[in-house]
């Protein structure tokens, strides 16, 4: 009987111990995780935004953990520090203040870092370190920043043996670009050239080259500087302009001088009969002929320079996916088709009162470099009543009826049937063009200029010279009460 009692007492003790033991919850094993990053370097462009991937393995909620992103040489002053469920303001590297964030989704175990307004000095190794109270792990991500250099500048000088010495210079690249010469037919010149690369204190590379070339009247040469097939700039030159005896302009001037000489001889003969009258006629005729010839040569030179300038600008044409119309910014009376076409529909009176300006912004913006795009504003014989195109700053008021002026961050070329073509300066100068089917828009963020071109005639319409803002958004308006579209091409 005592044995049974003892056995029962033991069972009760065991049960009591089990019931009073601490109850543990199912949590991830925080002392047994690792961080995972890409093996290959991350490459981006200066002025853009980039994501440096980093995530936990296995995936679990990282919100209770500490996340530290830092340069390999500066762990005590991180680019970003997440701790105690929030991003800490100190201590952080001042170079990254206001430019970094965690955008992957901490609750999903993604601790990726987003870096905005990337600079060349941001290149290098970044360490992703995640830690708990019991454990930590870290891994490195390598960032490479590419910088788009300037348009190649070409010059030509007379060489020996009927050849010319042509030089090409382009500055501000990273990493070191490739330079190549091509003829008008697209054949690459591989021999008899020299290429020199130099770096400035900021790490930007300047590339220069020169070659001897025997030109003809119709040949031009192209100098192309590139980081890839998509990232390249090109300059062109007509080498024959420097060779004595082969210039068409020189031949024309010589011919004109010969004709003038004959005129003067005739005038001297006339002096014998009509001395005073002949003398006055000869002097005035000579003056007029010189003036007319100078004006013709000046116009020819200006036309040639404008055409050459447009061909250079055309080389900066952006890819189609870089300019997509943003339907979130569109006026209620505009419809967007496939992100490329914009057209007007009937608007309500309330919409007219609330938002006077009918336009739509692009999704992407530009902050550095040179960019060119084209907008078709007329199809065949169909004419539009009105439209405007241009760029706007990143801090403009998009929803209300502020005047569309450069002071408010808008730089535009507009057309209205009753006013023809104008830019939005004060005063508004008319643009002397009779017909315009395609508008070329060239934005140079580095030089703060915005130019509009008549693509049909390959000529410059107008250039804004003080276009300053942090980010430039392309802007498009199909006009009011006009059923015909405008289209990005």
Brief sketch in words of this structure:
This protein has 489 residues and is α+β, with helices and mostly antiparallel strands.
The helix content is: 10-25%
Task: Return the CATH architecture of the largest domain.
Answer: Sandwich
Strand content: 25-35%
* Count of structural domains: 4
What is the name of the CATH class of the largest domain? Mainly Beta
Biggest β-sheet, characterized? 7 strands, antiparallel
CATH superfamily of the largest domain: SPRY domain
Number of helices: 4
Which outline best applies?
flat
Mean pLDDT figure: 80
* DSSP, total strands: 31
* Uncertain stretches of 5 or more adjacent residues: 18-29, 242-251, 278-284, 299-307
Fold and architecture overview:
The chain is of the alpha+beta class and 489 residues long. The chain has 4 domains: 34-146, Sandwich (Immunoglobulin-like); 153-242, Immunoglobulin-like (Sandwich), CATH 2.60.40.10; 248-312; 320-488, Jelly Rolls (Sandwich), CATH 2.60.120. It has 4 helices and 31 strands. The protein has helices at residues 2-20, 248-273, 275-314, 349-354, and strands at residues 34-36, 42-45, 50-52, 55-57, 66-71, 80-83, 86-87, 100-102, 113-115, 124-131, 136-146, 153-158, 164-173, 178-182, 188-189, 193-199, 205-213, 221-226, 232-237, 334-337, 341-344, 360-361, 370-376, 386-393, 410-416, 420-423, 438-444, 449-454, 459-464, 472-477, 486-488. The strands form 7 sheets. Strands 20-21-31-23-27-28-29 form a 7-stranded antiparallel beta sheet, with helices on one face. The chain has a 6-stranded mixed beta sheet with strand order 2-11-10-5-6-7, with no helix packed on it. Helix 2 (248-273) packs antiparallel against helix 3. It is flat, with a radius of gyration of 35 Å.
């Amino acid at each position: 009987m005592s044995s049974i009692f003892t056995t029962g007492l033991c069972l009760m003790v065991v049960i009591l111990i089990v019931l009073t033991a601490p109850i543990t919850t199912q949590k991830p094993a925080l002392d047994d995780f690792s961080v995972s990053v890409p093996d290959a370097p991350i490459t981006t462009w200066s002025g853009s935004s980039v994501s440096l991937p980093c995530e936990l393995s296995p995936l679990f909620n990282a919100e209770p953990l500490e996340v530290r992103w830092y340069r390999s040489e500066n762990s005590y002053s991180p680019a970003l520090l997440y701790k105690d469920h929030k991003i800490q303001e100190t201590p952080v590297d001042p170079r990254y203040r206001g430019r970094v964030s965690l955008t992957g989704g901490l609750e999903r175990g993604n601790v990726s870092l987003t870096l905005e307004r990337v600079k060349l000095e941001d290149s290098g190794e970044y360490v992703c370190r995640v830690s708990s109270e019991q454990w930590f792990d870290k891994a490195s991500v390598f960032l490479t920043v590419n910088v788009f250099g300037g348009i190649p500048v070409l010059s030509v000088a007379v060489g020996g043996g009927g050849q010319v010495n042509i030089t090409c210079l382009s500055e501000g690249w990273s990493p070191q670009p490739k330079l190549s010469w091509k003829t008008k037919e697209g054949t690459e010149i591989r021999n008899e050239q020299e290429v020199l690369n130099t770096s400035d204190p900021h790490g930007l590379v300047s590339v220069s080259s020169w070659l001897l070339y025997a030109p003809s009247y119709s040949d031009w040469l192209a100098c192309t500087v590139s980081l890839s097939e998509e990232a390249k700039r090109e300059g062109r030159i007509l080498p024959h302009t420097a060779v004595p005896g082969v210039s068409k302009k020189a031949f024309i001037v010589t011919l004109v001088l010969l004709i003038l000489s004959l005129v003067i001889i005739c005038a001297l003969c006339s002096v014998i009969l009509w001395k005073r009258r002949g003398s006055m006629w000869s002097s005035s005729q000579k003056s007029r002929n010189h003036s007319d010839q100078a004006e013709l040569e000046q116009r020819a030179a200006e036309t040639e320079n404008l055409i050459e300038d447009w061909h250079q600008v055309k080389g900066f044409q952006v890819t189609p996916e870089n300019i997509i119309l943003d339907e979130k910014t569109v006026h209620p009376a505009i419809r967007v088709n496939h992100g490329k076409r914009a057209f007007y529909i009937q608007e309500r009176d309330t919409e007219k009162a609330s938002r006077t300006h009918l336009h739509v912004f692009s999704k992407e913006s530009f902050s550095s470099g040179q960019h060119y795009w084209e907008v078709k504003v007329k199809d065949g014989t169909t004419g539009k009543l009105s439209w405007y195109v241009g760029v706007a700053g990143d801090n403009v008021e998009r929803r209300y009826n502020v005047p569309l002026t450069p002071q408010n961050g808008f730089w535009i070329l507009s057309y209205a049937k009753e006013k023809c073509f104008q830019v939005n300066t004060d005063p508004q100068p008319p643009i002397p063009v009779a017909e315009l089917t395609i508008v070329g828009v060239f934005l140079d963020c580095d030089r703060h200029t915005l130019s509009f071109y008549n693509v049909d005639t390959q000529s410059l319409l107008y250039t804004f010279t003080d276009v300053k803002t942090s980010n430039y958004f392309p802007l498009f308006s199909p006009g009011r009460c006009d059923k015909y579209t405008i289209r990005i091409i």
